[in-house]
Write a structure and sequence with these properties.
The chain is of the alpha/beta class. The protein contains 13 helices and 13 strands. It is an enzyme of class 2 (transferase).
Length: 390
């Protein structure tokens, strides 16, 4: 079996709902990332053999195979195919797994894994809502309802269940949420994101043109007292809007190659894909899956939690990474060192390769070797990717 290497990474700075990126069509947003990957790798566009793109709400402007549409809107030639993947929030992390598997098998040498979600222009849940309004029914089939009677699958309910099951308090989650902003502020001010972000032209409030280069969700004025003042989303619960991931517009991507691809490009790799795992878990609590997935991945890779230098665990809700820390025994100082989705935003299908972009760059900046990325996904799923910086 061959190896899979990451040779280029790119992401847009996140845009808030209705914010600075809301004027960008998601196809053009992702095309900008594809072009940036070509620039950063120096690759001849014709050498790319496939584009695999994660996207959750594949409807409206993100319908009709958003990956192929992004290819046609980019500098890539028409000969480059594209396919769209939906593994819910892990869609572009799964796109990365598919890309790595393709080059490891030798069936392809150069593949782009990417993801996009414009949550301003295609709101979360649009496909299900439109189907119901059109009288097309629900995804909850009779057999599914028979197996899970009287169950309304809810990520928010799952997040509260995790908080309760792991004995997490509102104060703990508030502190975690505050620290997400604190770390994102420090990363932004130190220039840690400079090499990740693709600058995009946007129209300012006064009509002037400017570049969007800073994640719009970061609250630079954040304080723990302000976090603690935010009301609970559920009476008796532990989670607030301030300890939940932000709705976000954004795109991201990585270029993945094998040994032949490295020779064709004539570049040095940034990282090697060391291990990949994906599991199914309880779909009711839903968001707990990163915990058993991490333990399984480490076992398969022959590693311990202490062998990993940096972790990216998606902050869908603060209870997820806090419970993950508690269960795995990981060093909290190695987790989401530049902030996470609570501060930077969670563009659903775009988050997988977004987190990988941040992880690979953080490993390089800190001179560290191994990184592990995981995230909870709708339906009780979780991907885990372990990379080695080269």
């Amino acid at each position: 079996m061959g190896e899979a290497y990451i040779v280029a990474t790119a992401r847009t700075a996140g845009g808030r709902k209705g914010g600075r990126l809301s004027g960008w069509h998601p196809v053009d947003l992702s095309a900008a990332v594809l072009d940036a990957l070509l620039d950063r790798s120096g690759a001849d566009p014709a050498i790319v053999e496939d584009v695999i793109m994660g996207c959750v709400s594949q409807v409206g402007e993100q319908a009709i195979n958003v990956a192929r549409n992004a290819v046609m809107a980019s500098r890539l030639p028409e000969s480059v195919p594209g396919t769209s993947v939906d593994r819910q929030c892990g869609s572009s992390q799964q796109a990365l797994h598919f890309a790595a598997q393709a080059v490891m098998s030798g069936s392809m040498d150069v593949v782009i894994a990417a993801g996009v979600e414009s949550m301003s222009r295609v709101p979360m849940g649009t496909s299900a809502v439109l189907a119901l309004k059109a009288g097309m029914g629900s995804y909850m089939s009779p057999r599914l309802q028979e197996r899970y009677p009287n169950i309304q699958f809810s990520q928010f309910a799952g997040a509260e269940m995790i908080a309760k099951n792991y004995g997490l308090t509102k104060d703990q989650l508030d502190e975690y949420g505050y620290n997400s902003h604190r770390k994102a502020i420090a990363a932004t001010q130190s220039g840690a994101f400079k090499d990740e972000i693709v600058a995009l032209e946007v129209t300012g409030a006064d009509g002037s043109k400017e570049l969007h280069t800073v994640d719009e969700g970061i609250r630079f004025e954040a304080s723990l007292e302000a976090m603690q003042a935010v009301k609970l989303l559920q009476e008796g619960g532990a989670i607030t809007a301030a300890t939940s991931s932000q709705i976000c517009d954004g795109a991201s991507g990585v270029m993945v190659v094998n040994e032949r691809g490295l020779k064709a490009l004539g570049v040095q790799p940034l990282a090697r894909i060391h291990h990949m795992t994906v599991i199914g878990h309880d779909p009711v609590i839903m968001l707990e899956a990163p915990i058993p997935a991490t333990k399984l991945a480490l076992k398969k890779a022959g590693m311990s939690i202490d062998d990993i230098d940096l972790f990216e665990v998606n902050e869908a809700f603060a209870s997820v990474p806090v419970a993950w820390l508690q269960s795995t025994g990981a060093d909290p100082d190695r987790l989401n060192v530049n902030g996470g989705a609570i501060s930077l935003g969670h563009p659903l299908g775009g988050s997988g390769t977004k987190l990988m972009t941040t992880l690979v760059n953080a490993l390089g900046q800190r001179g560290k070797k191994y990184g592990l990325q995981t995230m909870c996904e709708g339906g009780g799923l979780a991907n885990v990717t372990i990379v080695e910086r080269l």
